[in-house]
Description:
Layout: H1 5-21, E1 32-34, E2 43-45, H2 47-55, H3 59-68, E3 76-82, E4 86-91, H4 93-103, E5 118-122, H5 134-152, E6 156-160, H6 168-180, H7 189-203, H8 207-215, H9 220-229, H10 234-248, H11 252-275, H12 295-304, E7 309-311, E8 314-319, E9 322-329, H13 337-351, E10 356-359, H14 366-378, E11 391-394, E12 400-401, H15 418-437, H16 449-469, E13 477-478, H17 481-484, H18 492-509, H19 523-532, H20 535-545, H21 549-568, H22 577-600
Parallel strand pairs: 5-6, 5-10, 10-11, 12-13
Antiparallel strand pairs: 1-2, 2-4, 3-4, 7-8, 8-9
The protein binds arginine.
Amino acid sequence: MTQNPAARLEKAFSAAIEGALGKSFAGTDPVIRAATKPTLGDFQCNAAMGLAKRVGQTPQALAELIIEHLNADDLIESTEIAGPGFINIHLRTDALADALIAIDSPALGVSPSDPSEVIVIDLCGVNVAKQMHVGHLRSTIIGDALARVLERVGHDVRRENHLGDWGLPIAMVLDRLHADGTALSSMSLSDLDEAYRRAQSAARGDEAGWKSGVAKHVGPHRLFELEAQNASANDVRTRAGELLVALQDGDSTLTEQWHQIIDVTLSAMYEALELMNIKMGSENNRGESFYRDKLVGVLEIFEQRNACREDDGAIVVDFDNRERPMLIRKSDGGYLYATTDLAAIRCRTQDTGASRCIYVVDARQRDHFRDVFDAAAQVGWDKNSSGQSVEFVHTPFGSVLGADKKPLKTRSGSNATLASLLYEAIARGTHEVQQRSNDPKSPTHELNEQELREIGQAVGIGAIKYADLSNDLSRDYVFDLDRMVSFEGDTGPYLQYANARIQSILRKAGSFDNAAPLCVDAFEERQLGLMLLRWNSVVHETARTLEPHRIAGYLRSVAETFNRFYQSCPILGAETDAIRVSRLRLAHLTGRILEDGLDILGIATPDRM
Ligand code: ARG
């Protein structure tokens, strides 16, 4: 009896179709959907229209036959045939109440995935010596939300931060810092960023080659490699190449300086992760440097399996369905961004045993990942250490745009720094919360400055995260803080506020019997109940499609359905005590689903706003 009504209807109608049409129709999809018009029923079965022709009947006659074979009196109150052959289904009120009681548990009806998989999520990927920019912000927010939803359904998720902390770019920054005589001990991230930029332009000898890289959208990291490869940037490149060799050989001064650069970059990154409430720390760092002694092994495997060839002194991998090969070793013996990604895939699939590897990296690196995934398959890394096939997924995302609809920039013309955006959002959120607390009727009126600031931070960060997760990920969106922190509209604070209101009702009610009978007689109670019962399937759909906007949209519907319920079904002022307690139970369940959903999106839920 604990099964969800939608799942039970599927079973019952599938059996009825088989009963009506015979064994050969066993397993037919009964096409059960939520009713399009809630006043006409709770669910509908749309199967008759598709099957009628095949069996030489009218859809209406077939619908009637299906109903005759239906055996679900304990679940279904009534059915009626409508329009071209829909079957409208009304659930029994007691069955609906039982189903709600069944999900009123710590798991909220969300069933664990079977089997549970090991899944690696590649997120963040900050580059050492550079400011974390909005692209890394999106990668981190989206990656963390995907990790949370996959964990929610019971997978073993490993968040890996593929830091850009090795290779020629780092050596060039070191070279720049040496040339400028910068004291490494007192460096700020801005000094480093500046050095990175200048190293970059010094290496940009061949404008034409660089422009074609830009035009091909190869992504910032690969672009840097291209820049560094330009013939006319020889001097810088030679010096940096020598530094890299010395660093690779373990030169102690260089190693110390390299660590200093990393520390400066990472402390800014940890600050941002902490502000954003991202479940990630140093234990998640697996940067490019981690793979530096594993690159030779990668090359050996490609050679052993005849999956690469020499091309003018370099080593490349070919693909059947495209002309352009992928470079995995340069003619000077140096390795590339792609080689490191192959080494990472080898670790993830052969050591960690992942059966899914998800890369949350901006859309410009699409071709790079296509190459890397296909090359990995050529040497068998599309099977993990237990022989399961591995699914590689690149989850590209769009750009964050400024008010001018161009990729977001700060006044100085560089990409907006992450911290500046976060602090600005927190300031706006705090302002909004403080304003509201001035009202003596507000539940935040008695709170002190510090408490208001904490709520303000939750609102500001919640606003940014929701804006990032509530649309199709591949879409660009405009970073408009005024809209994002508003308590009205399609925003994070709207949902946080909906939950805070429920919490304040529950506070006013005091304790109540959590095992009291549920009554869902009123239309709005039924609608709310049906909405809450969808939570399990929404979580699983999100985990399957990797589309967090499904949860965002669902939570919005929950909040709206709750508001309609609250307007027509008084809770604290209910007609009888039994109804009051039943409605409190529904409100409590609604609040917990909102909190669970917001938690999956990584959004905090203050209980007063
Ligand atoms: N550091 C890279 C960049 O900023 C992102 C790393 C993405 N992950 C990966 N496995 N390549 O472009």
